[in-house]
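INFO  loader      accepted 1 record
INFO  loader      residues=245
INFO  predictor   begin
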Amino acid sequence: MLQVCLNGARSQSESRWVPVTPGELAAEAARAVGAGAEDVHLHPKGSDGLDSLEPRLVGAAVSAVRAVVPEGVHVGVTTGAWALPHPGRRVELIRSWTVLPDHASVNWHEDGAEAVAGVLLERGIGIEAGIWSGTDGARRFRASPLAHRVLRVLAEVTDTDPGTAAVTAAALVRELGRGLTVPLLLHGEDGGAWPVLRAAAGLGLDTRIGLEDVLMLPDGSAAEGNATLVQAARKILDQHHTPRF
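INFO  predictor   done
INFO  writer      dumping tokens
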């Protein structure tokens, strides 16, 4: 499965193609899915351009994207602590969402991860368990009573060195692989994004690409939107696909 991560915590000061408004998110999602993305991850944003968990903003972003992607393409959001550091307040806002995403990411190294994951389960929202390399997220996740209830593990390689990111990815997969009973989505960021995507392709794992993770195409040129990143990722994934006869 190839997921597109439309915007992340980035702003349009980093790339004019980063979608912010519901309309921009919808347009980028439609193009990315048309290019081969099968799932959508996005960060709802306020008028200040910052990530938000406010019900009105989450509802507007999710509804706009759902309206333009085919049925069966799931739409997810972030619950990252940078949007709202206080875990209790994050839980309160999730409880007040009126439009529910299909899934939401929970970074397991963050304070309050268990509480946030718990309220998502209460509301019937799938959990992407974010496990970042270089943190104690994997240890916390393995010890969690909720580990077997998540939709997937979102393994994020924070090593941005293109020369070492794939090695870091392999170590993270080994660490998570022991006893893992849910799907694993492996991805990197910035300089490590493309090496890690190639590693995921070689291992036959789910992966993702998008302006949240990287602003450049494999050839080093600037990506003009998420669809160009998805197209490039599809070429890599197709090279590792073995036809079945």
